[in-house]
From TrEMBL:
The gene is LOC117184843. Signal peptide: none annotated. PROSITE patterns: PNP_UDP_1 (PS01232). This is Uridine phosphorylase. Transmembrane segments: none annotated. Substrate binds at Q252, R254. PANTHER family: FI09636P-RELATED, URIDINE PHOSPHORYLASE. One of its GO terms (biological process) is UMP salvage.
Length: 366
């Protein structure tokens, strides 16, 4: 009887040991699988130890923690590499609503999924900008004008730096005032010019004027244009120079502002002069956007839809339905670009690693 009990006890022991071994083996296989998935996601590369951004403030390592005040984040409470390390595309536009709509659109286009009961969360707690993350795409609102976008870019660049992001591409998806082009036309900026027609962003630093070149990446502009084939999209796209004004009214020679000290005749002459210089549209952020991204070694582009032809008037009278249709046009181009870049990379990885397509495509949760 005692021997029988001992045997039962021993069996119990064996069983417990087997269960422990099994659990350990499952745990270790899980770890191996996790490593494999990470390995494939990283394209078989080691995690980078610094971002590809250049020319940033050499004192950044001294700020421990660093507070990104307008984004409502800091390096002590946010693990930047973990949360933002995979960001490859930063898409920006004036309004929070547009950027939220773009975030949902890109989620659909990339076949990424949220669990059914959740919505995309605005990750910027600073109440100034809205920021959504959809896989490798950040969608951020920048407000109006160069001062606003400049503040945002300083904080986004620090985010990219702390997150060790690799070659992020920045694209502004905006609206603009066209000069001699049909409303609804998409403009890819070839250059961002200030109001004196110089490709330059001027800031006053310690009382002195400092100028930064605001030329944009020509290759990226061409890549975007190549995706606007009229056989594939149902809108016109043009490439041309953009004037970045510091104001919507007098700064863009409108006749309908609260003040106006010039004539309709001088306005027409001014716009014709711009047109003669290859300018096709007005916006209010492109010089700061182009110059700051260039300074940080970031490729960038400005893609805006025209909501008015300034040769025919100043007031924007397009109906909400047209504005909503037009808003989607730059988004269509940018979504095509993002999908193309990601698909090219998958195909490249497949060639190198012989990874089956189902491992890198398909639906996955954000
Ligand atoms: O439509 P978004 O991208 O906000 O940009 C344009 O619209 C605003 C003016 O209405 C300016 O900020 C101009 O740049
Ligand atoms: O006319 C316009 C329209 C949109 N954005 C501008 O800056 N100007």
């Amino acid at each position: 009887m005692a021997a029988k009990c001992k045997t039962a006890g021993a069996m119990q022991c064996d069983l417990t040991r087997d269960v422990c071994q099994l659990k350990e083996s499952v745990r270790s296989q899980g770890k191996q699988l996790g490593r494999l998935v990470r390995h494939m996601k990283m394209g078989c590369k080691k995690p980078p130890n610094q971002s590809t951004l250049k020319g940033l403030n050499p004192c950044l390592p001294c700020f421990k923690p660093d507070f990104l005040y307008h984004l409502g984040m800091d390096t002590a409470t946010t693990n930047f590499p973990k949360v933002f390390g995979d960001v490859r595309f930063v898409c920006m536009g004036g309004t929070p609503g547009r950027m939220e709509r773009f975030a949902y659109r890109i989620m659909k286009d990339l076949r990424l999924k949220l669990s059914p009961v959740t919505t995309l969360r605005n990750m910027a707690d600073g109440h100034r900008f809205a920021l959504y993350k959809v896989g490798p795409v950040l969608c951020v609102s920048h407000g109006m004008g160069c001062p606003s976008i400049s503040i945002l870019l300083h904080e986004l660049f620090k985010m990219m730096h702390y997150a060790k992001c690799q070659n992020p591409v920045f694209i502004r998806i905006g609206t603009c005032g066209g000069i001699g082009i049909e409303p609804g036309t998409v403009v890819i900026s070839s250059e961002a010019l200030d109001c004196k027609l110089n490709p330059c962003y001027e800031v006053i630093v310690q009382g002195k004027i400092v100028q930064h070149c605001s030329k944009l990446d020509q290759c990226l502009a061409q890549e975007l244009q190549s995706l606007a084939n009229p056989c594939e999209v149902d809108f016109e796209t043009v490439v041309g120079k953009t004037i970045c004004a510091d104001d919507f009214y007098e700064g863009q020679s409108r006749l309908d502002g609260a003040f106006c000290d010039y004539t309709s005749h001088s306005k027409t002459a001014y716009l014709l002069g711009l047109k003669g210089n290859g300018v096709v549209n007005f916006d209010m952020e492109s010089t700061a956007f182009a110059a700051l991204t260039k300074r940080a070694n970031i490729r960038s582009a400005v893609v805006c839809v025209s909501v008015i032809d300034r040769m025919n008037g100043d007031q924007i009278r397009a109906c909400p339905k047209s504005l909503s249709v037009w808003e989607k046009r730059p988004q269509e181009l940018v979504s095509r670009y993002i999908r193309k870049v990601l698909l090219d990379e998958v195909n490249e990885a497949k060639k190198v690693n012989d990874v089956p397509a189902r491992c890198v495509g398909g639906e996955s949760e954000i």
